Structures are given as structure tokens and as C-alpha cells.
Amino acid sequence: MARLDIHMFPALWDNYCFLIHDEESGLTGVIDTPEVPAIETALRDTGWTLTHILNTHHHPDHAGGNLELKQKTGCTVVGPREEADRIPGIETQISDGDVYEFGPHRLQVIDVGGHTLGQIAYWCEESGVVFVGDALFALGCGRMFEGTPTQMWQSLQRLMALPDDTLVYCAHEYTQKNAQFALTIEPQNKILVKRSAEIDDLRAKDLATVPTTIGLEKATNPFLRPMSPDIQKTLAMTGAPVVDVFAEIRRRRDRF
Ligand code: ZN
Ligand code: FE
Question: Which of 48, 106, 196, 245 is 20–30 Å from 239 (CA)?
Fold first, then answer.
């Protein structure tokens, strides 16, 4: 089976948006709807016709374009059951463990609540990609607007369980600031130091740092590394419960 075609493009100020396309069936989905004109331009650029909106969570920079796009194209709106009352135009409600069949592509739904309570990720195992919304970022994770550290940490662990080479499509370009913060948490991490320099380089050329991979995040993202002895030492939390260390990293990032 062919892999899912993916077209990534910027929207609003620092969002990324993604078209997914199956050549054989002609299906085209958009992962979240930050901004209608940017999505329409992307559809024109690719020549694809929108058939689906696949929402990760209810925030306006993710579901704000739902109704206009649905009205213009007649596309189907798919989104998280736990946030159905806040997802405009939702028809198909899905939740953790469901498989949404996008033509021949199986999109496995993973609960990644914490940034919002009912946020979901879409994992296509066969294509080796996961769309994580605002749950996980390159070197960061979403702010916990609605959930608790325990919920968020469980969500991130579900993503950490995916194969290392899985491409991670996250919804914002926050990586450079995240890298600066990550270096305050784990300055001795050589892979992180090297990656941070690469990120500075990419951003100086106005290039995207997304997608990343699960393996690279596990090696460098402080939010996935609260079990690291070096990090625990830096935070003066050696031997503390891992979820408490995670919560402290999140608190520090909120103030950074
Ligand atoms: Zn959000
Ligand atoms: Fe967002």
C-alpha cells in the first residue's frame, strides 16, 4: 500500500497545518483548521479536494475554520468524542483505541489529553507518522490548560511507546525557544546541544524544525526525560516521583 501523502504548510502566526491525501481513493483530509485561506491555498497548490477535517482538539487555532470549510466543501468533520460539544460541525466522534479508516489508511486514535482534556492524536502506523496537535512539540509539550501533570505525563508516555522512527507532526513552531529552555534543564546532554545548534541554523534560514521523530524527542526533549538522573539532579529532585519531576519542568517552562 502506498504511504499517506502529507503536505505541511504554515498558518496564522506560528501554527503548522497538514493535508493528508490518499492517491488511490482521492481522499484529502486536513489535520485541524487554523486558518481557512492558508488551507485553501494549500489545496490549490496540491490540486487535492478536501473531503475530511480531522481535529485534534477544540482550540480556535485548531477548529476555528471547521464551519466555513465544511460549508464550502461539504467535507466530513471528525474529532475527539470528549470535546464533541466544543468542535464546530463535528459528525464523527472518535476516542482512544478507535481506528478511523481514511481510505486504506488506518488512523489509530491515541488519547493525549492534558493540554485540553479530550485531545487526541492520529497515528498511521503503516506510514510511520503521528499527528499530535498541541500535546507534544519538538523539545516541548503543550501547556496544561485543562489537565493535570499525571494526565499529561500518561499521554506523553503513550506517544513515547510509538516506534522511534515515527515522524511527529506537531502544530506549532516553538522549537527554538523550547531548545533554549531545554538547555537550562539538561545542559550536559550532548545530543541536545548539537540539536540546538542545528535548530538555530534552520531558524536563521526560516526553515521548519517539524517534523521531528519519537526517537529524537526521547533523547532530547526534557518533558520526555523526567527520569533522567542528570535532570533530577539539576532540579534538586533526585529520586522524586517522575510525575513530580515532569510537573516541575512544566512549571519552569511556563515561567521561562
Ligand atoms: Zn491548543
Ligand atoms: Fe495550538
Answer: 196
Catalytic residue among 59, 96, 105, 111: 59
pTM higher than 0.90: yes
State the SS3 of 38-63. Answer: HHHHHHHHHCCCCCEEECCCCCHHHH
Q: Are residues 145 and 31 part of one domain? A: yes
Query: Alpha-carbon distance 253 to 256, whole Å?
Result: 5
Q: How far is the CA of 121 from the centre of ligand 2 (A)?
A: 13
Q: Are residues 187 and 223 in the same domain?
A: yes
105 is catalytic: no
pLDDT tens for the 256 residues of the chain, in order: 789 999 999 999 999 999 999 999 999 999 999 999 999 999 999 999 999 999 999 999 999 999 999 999 999 999 999 999 999 999 999 999 999 999 999 999 999 999 999 999 999 999 999 999 999 999 999 999 999 999 999 999 999 999 999 999 999 999 999 999 999 999 999 999 999 999 999 999 999 999 999 999 999 999 999 999 999 999 999 999 999 999 999 999 999 9
Structural domains counted in the chain: 2
Residues 124 and 156 in one domain: yes
> Of 21, 22, 52, 57, which residue is the catalytic one?
57
172 alpha carbon, closest ligand: 2
Residue pair 169/18 in contact by the 8 Å Cβ criterion: yes
